[in-house]
Amino acid sequence: ILWTPSWKTGERDEVNGVLGKYCEDLYSVTRRKTRTVTCGPIKFGSDHPIVRQTMATTDTANVDASIEQIMRCADKGFDLVRITVQGKREANAAAAIREGLFKKGYDIPLCADMHFQPVVAQLVADAVEKIRINPGNFADGRKDFEEKVYESEADYVKEREYLTDAMIPLVQKCKDLNRCMRIGTNHGSLSSRVLSYYGDTPRGMVESAIEFADICRSQDFHNFVFSMKASNPLVMVQSYRLLASEMYRLDWDYPLHLGVTEAGEGEDGRMKSAVGIGTLLADGLGDTVRVSLTEDPEFEYEPCNRLSEMSEARLAATNPDAASRQAAVKKYVDTRDITAYSRRTGVLPEKTEEDKVDVSLFLNPNGSVISSVVPKMLSQDSAPYLYKELGFKTAVGMPFKDIATSDSIFMRTLPAVDDTNARTALRRMMEVGTGVIVPAEELKKNPLDNAVALMSLTEAAEANGELPDGAIRLAIEIDGTEDDDLIAKVKDLNPAMVLISIDPSLSQLHASRRVFEIFKANDIDAPAIHHYKTKVADSNNLALELGTKVGSLLTDGNGDGVLIEQVGENNFSVDFLRNTAFSLLQGCRMRNTKTEFVSCPSCGRTLFDLQETTAKIQDATGHLPGVTVAVMGCIVNGPGEMADADFGYVGTLPGKVDLYYGKEVVRKNIPNDDAVDALVELIKSYDMWKDKEEVEEEAVVAA
Questions:
Q1: Contact 245, 338 (CB under 8 A)
Q2: Which pLDDT band, with edges at 50, 70 and 90, does 172 fall under?
Q3: In the predicted model, what is the mean pLDDT of the chain?
Q4: Separation of alpha carbons 128 and 233, rounded Å
Q5: What pLDDT sits at residue 700?
Q6: Contact 464, 485 (CB under 8 A)
Q7: Is the model's pLDDT at 634 over the cut of 70?
Q8: Is the pLDDT of residue 359 over 50?
Q9: How far apart are CA 109 and CA 481, in angstroms?
């Protein structure tokens, strides 16, 4: 076998050159050129549409139920369905499922999901069009965390022999039958061998996959795709980009399967998936997509299809409008380092002795949420409800900031100066550290003491940063049409924040990246808030749009918060948009305001009702910000794929659950009916529990 030269020793740099580009074009959305990989009647690769796929949740051994569910998935629009194959029983069932689907007129290809069973993988290759193998456990046996010590590179590569022995028979079988393979690395289920040598890192994921690709290539087998999945979108994005960059320098052109593993459910699951998948699709990376939700597989189609459609609409080669927007962005040099994540952190405004309100609380160092508010929400009757919508606690009608309260509010128009009730409501929020951001022109007509005056960069430069009467700080709006010298003036203007609100004639992604490059070149450290304007009326679509368009910038480490403003009809409440914004920040690993759940999407291995159990666990533990709980249906998605969680709830036997603290099993074989309560007690035993706050009805003081 011609093994790829070692990265760790530097040999790869010497032989193949240093790591370079990771995508086809940094300045326009262009699909990475990939070879065509066949999978029955479908084809992966840059010459073909993005393939939409999902995974069955039925017990594979239940042939009739599996056939029915796969047909529903095909009818919904999916191109491929994955099924789990634990052993020979499921391999035989897979053959029956394939035959049954053909008899019913369905030729949708099937993928067998393999863990631990090289021999069974060979058996099931007779029946299905695609085999997914996980390098972390295909040949390494059951996952353990025993640390191995390698004195040298030679010691590490010596253990490749058993990988080769396990893989070559399967590779030959796939080659002979023209089957497709996915080399699917998972962040949480790297082998103990790789973990010991590379650590739990994107580099370890990439090197693990390259080893298995080397074995395939040694047999002249090239009908495979890669995946680099993780439940953390930042790790997932970095891993895929790193793999793509390695393939460029190795002159490989294998397609990529994109997915955020164990994303969860509802808007949060869609948001997390959009952050990871949408970011990479915007780079032109990705040939097939799976959105992993803790829901029935049919419900994965809409987000999967929408992300694919959004990606295709951005391609410069096939969409003249997109090409025009990307070409209209002024020239800049993209200096992002895709091999490491570092966040640009804006310097927050500081309170001075003259300030009558605490401006240091207008933004949050871990990421800020600014909510759009209109005057009618401040009326005497409406103000108490607005406080709640903005996430304030209240005591005798007075608002106080809580862990997920909007940091500031944005108002295009203000209530009249003589509207005492509305002005009092604003003053009460400002007194507890809430910024009120208002266009400077509105403040000139309708002054508000201690407001933050918003000006376009051009206006601010012309006024030399001079504020309207009563305003306490300056906020600047940048739309991306400004030239470099004008943007550089932000440094001297010293605003409390910059709102990045890209002109519709420009590509939001590329214009925003240009702004951050100019900030970096000029040491501009003003906090940058992404001002996202939307007309979307569907909550799931909003999560997908926001995750893709703003999340793709936050995953680069660029941005200090988000302001979502509805344009036209108000389809969503202030409360919903606030929570959506906080979900985005949490999905991008910036600011935790609630429990983080890592829940697998269910499959034929699942040993309990995953959706029902996840709902119970979320109800019991969803009020614990900073705590991560993994809910895994079986051991395959257990100690490995939830290894970065604080606590794990893992199915092990029918009707029984094991509980984990980190990577360690601390309670075994707990009956399902008792397991949620046992999880709560476990969290308490590690002093990470707090009781839910009771919501009390209170007398409302007149605003």
A1: yes
A2: very high
A3: 91
A4: 30
A5: 43
A6: no
A7: no
A8: yes
A9: 48
Q: What is the C-alpha separation between 204 and 210, in angstroms, rounded?
A: 10
- Tokens 């046992």 appear where? 678
Lowest mean pLDDT: which of 37-41, 238-242, 591-595? 591-595
Beta bridge partners of 649: 631, 659
**371: nearest Cα among 591, 577, 590:** 577
3-state secondary structure of 338: coil
pLDDT at 701 over 50: no
**Whether the predicted pLDDT of 697 surpasses 70:** no
Among candidate residues 74, 133, 130, 119, the one with its CA nearest the CA of residue 100:
74
Report how far residue 97's alpha carbon sits from residue 110's, in angstroms, rounded to the nearest whole number.
9
Beta strand segments in 391-457, E: 393-395, 398-400, 408-410, 435-439, 452-456
Torsion angle, CA of 95/98/101/106, rounded to 10 degrees? -170
State how far the Cα of 9 lies from the Cα of 14, in Å rounded to an integer.
10
Take residue 319 and report the two structure tokens written for it: 């969409």
Q: b/e map of 14-53 (b: 16 or more CB within 10 Å)?
A: eebeebeebbbebbbbbbbebbebbbbebbbbbeeebbbb
What's the CA angle centered on 626, arms 266 and 189, to 5 degrees? 70
Answer yes or no: are the C-beta atoms of 531 and 500 closer than 8 Å. Answer: yes
Cα dihedral 265/625/359/532 (nearest 10): -10
Contact predicate 145/106, CB 8 Å: no
CA 427, CA 450: separation in Å to the nearest integer? 9
Q: Which residues touch 557 (CB under 8 Å, ≥6 apart)? A: 341, 342, 343, 344
Residue 635 has pLDDT above 90, yes or no: no
| 209 in Cβ contact with 247 (< 8 Å) | no
